Amino acid sequence: MILPCTLALSVLSLTATAYPRAQTPFTAPRTRKLSFELRQSHSTFFDHSSSHPRILFRDEHPATGFVPPISLSTTPMVVSRPASPQAFQAARLRSMRHDQSELLEWDDIPVLAPDLTDRNTILELAKMTGNAYAQPGHSNWYDLDPEWNTSFPIGWEPDDDGFRGHVFANADNSTVVLSIKGTSLWSMNGPTAKKDKLNDNLLFSCCCARVDWSWTWEKVCDCWAGGMKCDNTCLSKSLVEDSLFYSVGVNLYNNLTYIYPDADIWLVGHSLGGAIASLLGATFAVPTVAFEAPGERLAATRLHLPQSPTLVPVTHIYHNADPIPLGTCTGIRSLCAKGGYAMETHCHLGKSIVYDAVSQLGLSVSLANHRIAVLIKKVLAEDWDPPEAREEIACVDCYKWEFGEYFPQAQHTPTLLANSSFHAS
């Protein structure tokens, strides 16, 4: 199934199905377990006859015969969503164009969310996330059950360089899990590596990936204003127009709500995929689990996402032997910088569950521990209860930088592209 993107690089289009309205008073459902199977693979490709990315969904066909599916524990949650997608868009535009906030009406919506006090649920969600990197049958594919191993995810062909992952659903399609792939390292020369690196440096650097002042460092936008100064409006425009994965993610989510209009949707991802999942979770107010993601709170501010009156339903899960979510892989001598990655942020949206892998498991802080395999096999496989989820209080990103309006406003006012669209309900 091929669904065209209604947006290319603009990120402001939200369909009416994105924000369902509460029709009846909320009654909390009982906590229960749901069984999931793989339904679709998704990826993004670029048709050379068009300048616009296209999203592909491929139906996956399970094996014949009965195979017990995997079960995930769930819990009720109430999320706050804007009363309409039009109001959400208007608030974003007002903030982006005039640096002014707009009062939004928010609805409390009951949803079913993963129970993140259950160790097995976290472990299986991590495996779903890890499989976004892999082809079934390969050594890095995690067995969820034999039924899923018969599928072949698309998006791994040599010429494909886009957004990848899987779609899982339970039997009655009432709950859907969308997984999103993270960064493929530039050193591995994978087909997605170039765009992964661009998005990493746009989303997680303080100012256009300007780690030092030499000509050898590859910046990703032109917002540096000299010294430790950076133009705010320019940064916002760069993320709106150049941050491909968030834009594609918005379209992917809208397409998913078209396929599953009545489902509770969960988002999961690792590293860059976790940060994109978190930004989409904040955009659409859906339960999101981000594994080992860099700090994305600064990117959410630069994308001008309207702030919910309640905490966004995003939970970050990582351990303290991984420098990426800790925001410590910084400086010109760091391995990140040597690889051309400016991973300078560490503040996260929502809440975080942080495992103490250093003192409890004896792991040392190392970039090698950022691999999701380490999280799955060495941390989550341990028989211990998840730590309490906590909000990151008093966290500040890029405190050495000064952010203001240093360039002529007219040159950097974000504008909607010609193919952007606002869908009325």
Automatic annotation (TrEMBL):
It is an enzyme of class 3 (hydrolase). This is triacylglycerol lipase. GO terms for cellular component: multivesicular body membrane; vacuolar lumen. The keyword Lipid metabolism applies. CDD domains: Lipase_3. It comes from Botryobasidium botryosum (strain FD-172 SS1). Belongs to the AB hydrolase superfamily. Lipase family. Its EC number is 3.1.1.3. One of its GO terms (biological process) is piecemeal microautophagy of the nucleus. It is found in: Endosome, Multivesicular body membrane; Prevacuolar compartment membrane.
